[in-house]
Amino acid sequence: MAPVIITDNLGKKYGDLDAVNRVNFSVREGSLFGLLGPNGSGKTTMIKMLTGQILPSSGKGYVLDIDVTSDPVEVRRSVGIVPEQETPPSFLTVMEYLEFVGEIRKIPDLEKKILWWLEFLDFGDKRDVLCKDLSRGTRQKLMLTQAFIHEPKLALIDEPLINFDPIMQTKVKEFFVSYVHQGNTLFLSTHLLETAEEICTDIAILHKANLLFCGTIHEVLEKSGHLPEFFLSLVRSN
Ligand SMILES: Nc1ncnc2c1ncn2[C@@H]1O[C@H](COP(=O)(O)OP(=O)(O)OP(=O)(O)O)[C@@H](O)[C@H]1O
């Protein structure tokens, strides 16, 4: 099975700063891939490059066989994306925003799908509320909905569980696991190491713009017993 994401010496500089330093890894189809790393290690920059939001400074990146440098628009069209701390347009209601997304993505049976998501994430009572008046958790529900409503084969999500209460975290984690069991792929960045250990099949660790580790969760657990210990000892020794 061909990887759904390949990076080949992919790098990003902001002026003189290496935010991501010539990184190589690939993501298997059907995996739940967790990108970990301390603050400022380059996770968001990596996701932005892989979702066509910024252009790399060096190397190549392929997402679903699409070159992220030459065809960023096609990348954005093909995947589900939840950018870091993104908020939906303040001047639209929940329904208006989802109808807008449906229009752009040309989603069949849109109304039915919207109703399913409103019920699944338990925010149907907010359907006519302007996005500016939503709580942070409800905004995150809306951002997750817009990422998955067109049923992409691959979704990339920056900090997916932030702002959610424990009940909603559990529900969303279960959704992620069932999403990959259906053959789709999920690429997420997170600081929640216990959660990554619980649900991820594959792990990559960035530190100071460099890739320190990429492998399966089984390799991690064999080496170290638990992901948090593995992560801390690797990062502290580099
Ligand atoms: N637009 C930008 N201009 C200049 N520097 C930037 C820009 N965006 C990010 N950086 C820098 O690039 C480095 C990597 O940032 P990035 O946001 O990718 O890290 P991160 O791992 O996602 O961090 P966090 O866990 O804190 O969200 C940091 O040093 C950051 O200050």
TrEMBL record:
Q: Which PROSITE patterns match?
A: ABC_TRANSPORTER_2 (PS50893)
- What SMART domains does the record tag this protein with? AAA
Name the source's superkingdom. Answer: Archaea
Supply the Pfam families for this chain.
Answer: ABC_tran (PF00005)
Enumerate the GO terms in the molecular function aspect. ATP binding; ATP hydrolysis activity
The parts of the chain that form a coiled coil are: none
Has the keyword Cell membrane been applied to this entry?
no
Membrane-spanning segments:
none
Q: Which UniProt keywords apply?
A: ATP-binding, Nucleotide-binding, Transport
Name listed for the protein in its UniProt record: ABC transporter ATP-binding protein
Q: Which organism is it from?
A: Methanospirillum stamsii
